[in-house]
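Interim report to the steering committee. The following record documents the input for General substrate transporter (485 residues).
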Amino acid sequence: MAGGVKKPVNIFKLKNLGEPKEVFNWRLWFAVISFGLLGAARGVDEGLISGAFNSKDFQSRIHYGLYSKTEQANIKANVSSMVQIGSVGGALFAFLICDKIGRIWATRQLCVLWIFGIAIFMGSNGNLGAIYAGRFIAGLGVGQTPVVGPVYIAEIAPASIRGFCTCIFTGFVYLGIVLAYFTNYGCQVNLGDTTPSRWLVPTSLHIIFAGLIFILTFFQYESPRYLVKQGKNEKALEVMARLRHLPEDHEYVSREINAITVAHHEEMEATKGAGWLGVIKEAFTIPSNLYRVGLTIGAQIMSQWSGAGSITLYAPDLFELLGITGTNENLLITAVFGIVKLVAAVLCALFLVDVIGRKRSLLIGITLQAIAMIYVAGFLTAVPGLGNVSKGVAYHLDSAELAASRGAIAMIYVSGFGWALGWNSMQYLLTAELFPLRIRAFCTSLAMTFHFANQYGNSRAVPNLLLPVSNGESLRKGRFGSLPR
């Protein structure tokens, strides 16, 4: 059976769930946090790359000033979005790796790819080819994190708190963003803008997180569901007992393992033991599974084109467009934006998603995002000169426009809260809860492939969209996606 959406619960009243009190123990939380840390992979990259790219030292290394404005926008877009391109491949093959070598070893190999790619990026010495290659390889690892992390968490978490545990993964996305934003700000203030340390120190956060996750895997156990799938029922029983902090012969542990085993046997009987082609056939030819696939892919497409990912990725540029002047002030405002998103994610995980339910959380989040973006779009339409430079002088906001500008900045924060409450939580919860065990890894992988493909599309476009209107002619002549020679 697929894990359906559960009745909303208050995670502060776990004793009222009818579960043995031993179930909610340190081993469970340690495992959830260890794999939840995988969420920081995307958060760190989204929070770091724009600030690192805007470093004067980084720009001088790639001779950024020698290119035209349009070429500069293309370079920035390509460098920033190259991780998303790699992530498409990483997410696409994550299910094969997950099912072939297990969740633990899948995590270890993605950490190695992640570290290797970032090492190439940091040692590129201004070579654009090496920069692109390094970020692409890192993306191959990063792209696997939203498949491996939520799948493992969903497979070890008790059904009653699965939503909360999965939200821990999304919470670490925001923790990564906050650390990245504040590291950028701290290095800008204390190290200056002309030293290599200005962008190398923040970038090292990638290696710190990947190394920490790699080490933590040696203190974790393989998913009981994966072990059952491999025919290792005794080992699965042992691991489940450890995770639940109960004896192996306890009724609760036996019931969980039996349910997993029966579900697996039913699925194998239905598919007659077919291989990976059978998994694909099961996902697309069984109407109920096809509906689930369509639902999750639709969620990924709509969530990414809500624009929240691009706001995070290019937050310093957007705040500058809205009237924040000065590099330090811009980075500080951006860092505060990261805190708002982190607090929103924590509040959603603790008080909202499992308390008010998935559907209400999603609808409220979408509404907040829509209101915020309508206001920002209206402000930028009303002040078309904002962001343009005429004869070396930037557009100056009058007193009325300045107040509206501050309102637009506040609305960016509101959109971040809405994103944390709505789409960002639901895109992981849906894939974690909807699919049967046999096709879960494949369907999660497919959903994340669409996630990164669409994230690449909007993140690649934004730098060009932020160019002044005067640059529009060169874009229409086909240089939108060109790479400078």
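DSSP finds 21 helices and two strands in the chain. The committee is asked to note this result when reviewing the revised timeline.
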